[in-house]
Design brief:
There is one protein chain. With 482 residues, the protein is an alpha+beta fold. It is built from 14 helices and 23 strands. The chain has helices at 12-22, 39-58, 72-75, 79-85, 111-121, 166-187, 233-237, 262-271, 299-313, 329-339, 349-354, 375-400, 408-416, 430-440; strands at residues 26-28, 35-37, 62-63, 69-71, 91-95, 98-106, 130-139, 153-163, 192-196, 208-215, 221-231, 241-243, 249-251, 253-260, 288-292, 319-321, 343-347, 356-361, 367-371, 402-404, 421-426, 443-448, 474-479. The strands form five sheets. Strands 3-7-8-14-11-10-9-22-23-21-20 form an eleven-stranded mixed β-sheet, sandwiched between helices. Strand 15 (288-292), helix 9 and strand 16 (319-321) form a beta-alpha-beta unit. Helix 2 (39-58) packs across helix 6 (166-187). It is globular. The two termini are 28 Å apart. The model is unreliable at 451-458 (pLDDT under 50). It binds zinc ion. Zinc ion (ZN) is lined by residues 427, 429, 432, 465, 467-468, 470.
């Protein structure tokens, strides 16, 4: 099994693809840039959906569904939006054997169709806030694709909310940014930097884009979720007004926020190793796999013992028993390591006699003997410890790969070694930002909260822009990104 996976040190990019393909998470589709999400990959997506959906509901949101096809004229209503998305659109011009009167765009995102409906649904301040999310697929014609990280069609959720005031919209934007941050850190065990995007990196049609950025094991950054304050841009484009409490008419304030199947790529890249996938227990579709070890004469007794253990654990764990006798235990061990199941339980005839089991951690390979009677409590504690250790390991990696540049020459040097995130003063000028991108391939990943736009500039005070030398309004985090 393991021989099929290229070591990270040899070729990180190939290592990632080997894991996705060999662990059967996804496969290439007949149409270039599209992917098939296989059952094991989809099970991971379901865990992500369940976790996020619960958090959306806790914060007052409800789910709905809007159509895949959007009249082309809708996309053109918001100037920045059409400019940003035009190069990525797929357009339906023929249907039912005839040329359509108006071409239909396959949704790259749903602001336009949703705001065309909000115009019907919102009349008064009593209709606000409107807090709707949808789980769906979207399509963006990408030139360079990579399984999960960037595909032409992908699955995501997109929240679209409408508010009576600018302050409420900003509050919602930050609330959802924090939902993404908590999900990444607590479920995925991936530490993230939360902050604002620069003007050049913001969503097409937004006033302000907030994001969470995660660091992968090759030192590249991955944007893992975005939350946009759309101001009144879409309300103006679709003429959505409401009667305020003071009986005046105002345009509605909006937000949108999304996270996608890209999160699966983030989890793989943040934790996995040369043996395969490493999954944080909270996200793992299977937390514990039981592998009985037997010969012909002990098969019946050991299997019965293992089934008993499975039944004991089943109410509290996502547990799998593999008592198939076609494959050897050794084959099973490497297979479940490849699949990233957090804990493997081995039971042989001698363990059975002693009333014990062997628990093997996927993250460290550490073996522990546990009395069967204590198994539920001890295994739960072990899974909690794996979850916490993976987060701490990723956090340490990020600390070791975060540095501060005082000069432009230093920025370029630090981006190569140690790589990762490099903090530096930035004046806020797009020309300085573009120079860095052109010369180093690094972009401003985020202006961390506390020093970002629309916030106090304390983080940048006293420092200078490392590109032009003017006073820096910001401390920006630079990095090369997926
Ligand atoms: Zn500058």
């Amino acid at each position: 099994m393991a021989e099929k996976i290229t070591p990270r040190a040899k070729d990180y990019s190939q290592w990632y693809i080997d894991i996705v393909i060999n662990a059967k998470l996804a496969d290439y589709a007949p149409v270039k840039g599209c992917m098939v999400i296989r059952p094991r990959g989809y099970a991971l997506w379901e865990r992500i959906q369940q976790g996020l959906d619960g958090m959306f509901k806790e914060t007052g949101h409800v789910n709905a569904y809007f159509p895949l096809l959007i009249p082309e004229s809708f996309i053109k209503k918001e100037a920045e939006h059409v400019e940003g998305f035009s190069p990525e659109l797929a357009v339906v011009t023929h249907a039912g054997g005839e040329k359509l009167e108006e071409p239909l765009v396959i949704r790259p995102t749903s602001e336009t169709i949703i705001w065309s409906m909000y115009k019907k649904w919102i009349q008064s301040y009593r209709d606000l806030p409107l807090l709707i999310n949808q789980w769906c697929n979207v399509l963006r014609w990408e030139k360079r694709t990579r399984l999960f990280l960037r595909t032409t069609e992908f699955l995501w959720q997109e929240g679209h909310t409408a508010h009576a005031t600018a302050a409420e919209a900003e509050e919602e934007t930050l609330r959802m940014l924090d939902v993404y941050r908590r999900f990444a850190e607590e479920h995925m065990a991936v530490p993230v930097l939360a902050g604002v995007k620069s003007e050049s990196e913001k969503f097409a049609g937004a006033v302000r884009t907030y994001c969470i950025e995660a660091l992968m094991q090759d030192g590249k950054s991955l944007q893992a979720g975005t939350s946009h304050n759309l101001g009144q841009n879409f309300a103006k484009a679709f003429d959505v007004t409401f009667q305020t409490k003071d009986k005046t008419l105002d345009h509605v304030w909006a937000t949108s926020w999304g996270a996608s199947t890209r999160l699966i790529g983030a989890v793989i890249m943040a934790h996995s190793d040369d043996k395969g996938l490493v999954l944080p227990p909270r996200l793992a579709p299977t937390e514990v796999v039981i592998v009985p070890i037997f010969k012909n004469e002990t098969k019946e007794a050991v299997t019965a013992f293992a089934r008993n253990l499975r039944d004991t654990l089943a109410p509290g764990f996502r547990v799998l028993l593999d008592d198939d006798d076609q494959n050897t235990p050794g084959w099973k061990f490497s297979e479940y390591e490849l699949q990233g199941i957090p804990v493997r339980v081995e039971i042989g005839p001698r363990d059975m006699e002693k009333g014990q089991l062997v628990a093997v951690r996927r993250d460290t390979g550490e073996k522990t003997f546990l009395p069967v009677a204590e198994a539920p409590a001890k295994l739960r504690a072990m899974l909690d410890d794996i979850q916490a250790s993976l987060f701490q390991k990723a956090l340490k990696f990020r600390k070791d790969h975060t540095s501060r540049a005082a000069t432009y020459a230093e920025l370029a040097k630090l981006l190569d070694d140690p790589g990762g995130f490099v903090e530096a003063g930035w004046c806020g000028d797009a020309a300085c930002e573009a120079k860095v991108k052109e010369e180093t391939k690094a972009t401003i990943r985020v202006l961390p909260l506390g020093s970002g736009e629309g916030r106090s500039a304390q983080g940048g005070q006293g420092s200078t822009c490392i590109i032009c030398g003017k006073n820096a309004g910001h401390i920006a985090v630079f990095g090369r990104a997926y």
